[in-house]
Specification:
Layout lengths: L2 H17 L10 H10 L5 H13 L5 H6 L2 H8 L5 H19 L3 H5 L3 H9 L6 H11 L9 H9 L9 H11 L4 H17 L23
The chain binds a DNA duplex through helix 2, helix 3, helix 6, helix 9 and helix 10.
Length: about 220
DNA sequence: GACCAGGCACATC
DNA sequence: GATGTGCATGGT
C-alpha cells in the first residue's frame, strides 16, 4: 500500500471520528443540489442557505417555475448568495439545459452515464469542474470525487501536493487511492470541507486540528 | 475594517 | 499556457 493511499485513508478515519458523518448534500432533492452548487460558487454556505430559503419559500425549487421567473425577481431572491447577476445567468443556463434536454426531469438526466453527463454539464457556461462534480456526486450519486479549495489546501499543507496543483491531478490522487464507493466519496469531501471551515483555514489552527498528528505545514523550519 | 467564502469566464500577455 | 480580474453579499 502506497504511503499516500495509507495517509488518505487515515485522514478519512480521523476526520470521521472527529466530526462524525456529515450527511451531505445539505439539500432535499437532486434539483436543490444543482441550484445550490451554482449558488455556492466562491460563497459561504450560510449565505447560500438564505437564498435557497427564499426560493423554497416562493415555491420556486422546480425547473420550469424557476426558468419562467423573470430575471429581476430571480436576482432579488438569490441576492444573499452574492454574485447574483452572474449566478442568475448561470442558473438560467443550467435550467435551459435541463429542460431542453430532459424536459426538466432530473431522473432522466441521472440515467445517463457519468462521462456523458459530466461532459454536458461542463459544456454549460458557468459550470466548471467543481460545480459539475458536485452535481454528479451529490445530486446524481455518481462516482466522482469533488475537489475544492479546501481539498487542495489541506493536501498541500500535509505535503501530499505541491501548491496550485491541477484539479484533474488532485482528483486522480483520490480516485487512485480510495475504494470506488459513492458514499465514501460523498463523506470524504464533506469532511474535508468541515476541516477546512474549522481548522485548516487560511490562517490555520493546527493546535486543535484533528490531523495535527500527521506531518503538516507548521512543522517546517 | 480587513479578510474570507464549498468558482468561473474572460482578457491579456 | 500562465496570470490577473470582475463578480457581491454577509460572517468573523
Amino acid at each position: 500500500m502506497s504511503t499516500i493511499r495509507q495517509q488518505l485513508l487515515e485522514f478519512y478515519e480521523t476526520l470521521l471520528a472527529h466530526f462524525g458523518p456529515q450527511n451531505w448534500w445539505p439539500g432535499d432533492t437532486p434539483f436543490e443540489v444543482m441550484v445550490g452548487a451554482i449558488l455556492t460558487q466562491n460563497t459561504n454556505w450560510k449565505n447560500v442557505s438564505k437564498a435557497m430559503a427564499n426560493l423554497k419559500q416562493a415555491n420556486l425549487l422546480d425547473p420550469h417555475r424557476l426558468l419562467e421567473l423573470d430575471r429581476e425577481h430571480l436576482t432579488a431572491l438569490i441576492k444573499p448568495a452574492g454574485y447574483f447577476n452572474i449566478k442568475a445567468k448561470r442558473l438560467h443556463n443550467l435550467l435551459t439545459w435541463l429542460i431542453d434536454r430532459f424536459e426538466g426531469d432530473v431522473e432522466s438526466a441521472k440515467a445517463l452515464d457519468t462521462e456523458t453527463l459530466r461532459a454536458e454539464l461542463l459544456n454549460i457556461k458557468g459550470i466548471g469542474r467543481e460545480t459539475a462534480d458536485s452535481i454528479l456526486l451529490y445530486g446524481f450519486e455518481k462516482l466522482i470525487f469533488v475537489v475544492d479549495t479546501y481539498t487542495c489546501r489541506i493536501l498541500w499543507r500535509h505535503r501530499l501536493l505541491d501548491e496550485d496543483m491541477d484539479y484533474d491531478y488532485v482528483q486522480e490522487i483520490f480516485t487512485d487511492a480510495l475504494p470506488a464507493e459513492v458514499q465514501l466519496y460523498n463523506e470524504y469531501h464533506a469532511l474535508l470541507v468541515a476541516l477546512g471551515k474549522t481548522y485548516c483555514r487560511p490562517r490555520p489552527n493546527c493546535v486543535a486540528c484533528p490531523l495535527s498528528r500527521f506531518p503538516h505545514c507548521l512543522e517546517d523550519g
